[in-house]
From TrEMBL:
InterPro entries hit by this protein: DctP_fam, TRAP_DctP_sf
Annotated transmembrane regions: none
Location within or outside the cell: Periplasm
Protein name per the record: TRAP-type C4-dicarboxylate transport system, substrate-binding protein
Signal sequence residues: 1-22
GO cellular component: a single term: periplasmic space
Alphabetically ordered keywords of this record: Periplasm, Signal
GO process terms (BP): transmembrane transport
Domain of life of the native organism: Bacteria
Lineage, top ranks: Bacteria, Pseudomonadati, Pseudomonadota, Alphaproteobacteria, Rhodobacterales
């Protein structure tokens, strides 16, 4: 790390360290401070790591001015950071299994359930583990946003209202959704949403309502419509550099994993449930109008999400050569349904879901060989 980068980190007061004998991991979320990926995911890891390791592991946080989301892959592969928040949809050709999960975004409904489903799927998927290993990384869980909504300048209530509307798209399934309903998808980074809306390049976005606060869109958005758009869950919340993982003892790996599992569900609770409620209140206080969508649009959106699973499988076959794509889609959908039941049974309780994922998934992993 350069002296300048370290000085910036120390000046910002975001280093977390402990005893001189502790191993300090360099961690990066790539997100601004208000976003749950920083406030709860990576701040959570920094908090839990010394607790779970008895002080043997600590963390120093590198902010987005040092490592952005787009730089996360290079930062992990070059050793600049030890643990990073990698968004696999940035690299679909190199992480096709994650790309397939991302293609199924429209089918997600329950944030806890889909985060748990992708975690179980990825941990137990041999080809998923191989592609991550080839990528030089070790997977420690996923999270999810709340169900996406339409955040727009003009009201959108019916399918006709969508025609010609320029919407920021966070990935291929959202672009397909927009095109299906006659809107115009615009593929830009979430970090560019504010500027693009303020300049009139786009008319709105398909996104978490939390983006109103995380990216200051509350200053621009005038209307919110909760059309079922799925959630954003194709994440590697904690991707560990393989070199770092190989240097950790089994006990240290277990401590890191326990800390990651706790932070994963802090993050999904915040991004999927708590932050959206806060953002909705702020939006209403700011005078933003909330609309009930036309039932015909809701039904059409749900039908499209189910039909789009076939498109996801076809893309996986054609682009990535997955001859068993239909079976993979079916397996993942079955896991989502399994975890939706568990989520409902737990009352969508964060601590209960954290424990359930530990019992169902991580407790069965051999940490001496996992990720190696």
């Amino acid at each position: 790390m350069s002296k300048l980068s370290l000085s910036l980190l120390l000046a910002a007061g975001i280093a977390v360290s402990a005893g001189a004998d502790a191993r300090e991991l360099r961690i990066a979320s790539g997100a601004p401070p208000p976003h749950p990926a920083t406030s709860h995911l990576y701040n959570g890891l920094a908090k839990y790591l010394p607790e779970e390791s008895g002080g043997a592991l600590t963390a120093i946080f590198l902010g987005p001015e040092v490592v952005s989301l787009g730089q996360m892959k290079d930062a992990l592969q070059t050793g600049l950071i030890d643990v990073g928040n990698l968004l696999p949809l940035y690299f679909p050709a190199e992480l096709p299994n994650f790309a397939l999960a991302g293609e199924l975004s429209l089918s997600a409904r329950d944030p806890y359930a889909v985060a748990a489903a992708l975690t179980e799927y990825t941990v137990n998927c041999e080809s998923c583990q191989k592609e991550l290993s080839d990528f030089g990384m070790v997977y420690l869980g996923s999270g999810s946003s709340d169900p996406y909504r339409l955040l727009t300048k003009e009201p959108v209530v019916t399918a006709d209202d969508l025609k010609g509307v320029r919407l920021r798209s966070g990935g291929a399934p959202y672009s397909r959704w927009a095109e299906h309903f006659g809107a115009v998808p615009v593929a830009i980074s979430v970090l560019e949403t504010f500027e693009s809306m303020s300049q009139g390049t786009i008319d709105g976005t398909m996104a978490s309502i939390g983006d109103l606060l995380a990216f200051r869109l509350v200053e621009l958005v005038k209307h919110v419509t909760p059309v079922p758009l799925g959630t954003y869950f194709s994440t590697c919340n904690f991707c560990v550099a393989k070199g770092t993982w190989s240097e950790l003892s089994v006990d240290e790996r277990a401590a890191l994993l326990r800390a990651a599992n706790r932070a994963n569900f802090d993050f999904t609770w915040r991004w999927g449930y708590d932050f959206p409620a806060i953002a909705e209140k702020a939006a209403r206080d700011a005078g933003i109008t909330f609309h009930e969508p036309d039932p015909a649009l809701v039904e059409a959106a749900r039908a499209f999400a189910i039909e789009d699973r076939k498109t996801a499988a076809r893309i996986a076959k054609e682009r990535f050569g997955m001859e068993d794509a239909e079976e993979r889609v079916a397996e993942f959908v079955a896991l989502v349904e399994k975890w939706e039941k568990i989520s409902e049974e737990t009352g969508r309780d964060r601590d209960a879901m954290t424990q359930k994922v530990w019992e169902e998934v991580w407790s069965k992993v051999d940490l001496a060989s996992y990720g190696m």
